[in-house]
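Chapter summary example.
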Amino acid sequence: MLDNPSPGAGSVPEYMISGIPWLTSSAITSGATVEYELPRVTSTMLISCLAGSAGSIRFGVTAAGVNANNYITVPPGDSRNIRMRTKTLVAKAVGGAATFEVCASLTMISSSSYPKYDHAKLEGV
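The structure predicted for these 125 residues follows.
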């Protein structure tokens, strides 16, 4: 008997259906980093750096990654649509203060059943 098993990281249907919305808008000073631990694993994210920001935003999945070479950059007035499974999101303002927005689509996969990325052990994060 299956007894209604919980979805796991490889549960394909979780990434095929519309997700649960997770939204934030934050302003951070140049050089500052903010990290979000999401309650569930993402399937997609729309990340925007708002027009009028003095600096760009670096986004990654570890603080060490955004301070190294493992990030994407979103300049002011631009956005990125990303398909990625993660339970952490890290943002860093570079070149000046920046305001950003994130709209993430969350699966029903609990973040507790997903590994935390470790920059020292996993190349690219």
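To summarize the output: The chain has a mean pLDDT of 92.
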